[in-house]
Amino acid sequence: MSSSIRQTLSPDGAVVACHWRKRIEGWTLDGDQVHSTLRGRMGLPLLGHYWDEDMVLDVWTPDKRSIHQREAAA
To answer: Mean pLDDT score of the chain, rounded to an integer?
Structure first.
């Protein structure tokens, strides 16, 4: 999956993953486990990460520059 994401993602694109951190009946993984797996397999720079008691959100992009660096270069 992650190799196909990298191959098809445009240079200015982003992959956003957001999951509940609580256990969901019928699902084998919780959000923390999903994001841990994604971080190990994505192969893209992690642009942003947010988590709270309920959810976790990660953003990966092919461009490792920060938002500030991207805006300053424009």
So the answer is: 90
- Residue 54's Cβ-count burial label (10 Å; 0-12, 13-18, 19+) is exposed
Q: What is the pLDDT of residue 35?
A: 94
67: left (phi over 0), alpha (psi -120 to 50) or beta: alpha
CATH number at residue 41: 3.40.50.150
Q: Cα–Cα distance between 50 and 9 in angstroms, integer?
A: 22
**Number of domains the chain is built from:** 1
> What's the CA gap between 55 and 34, in Å, rounded?
12
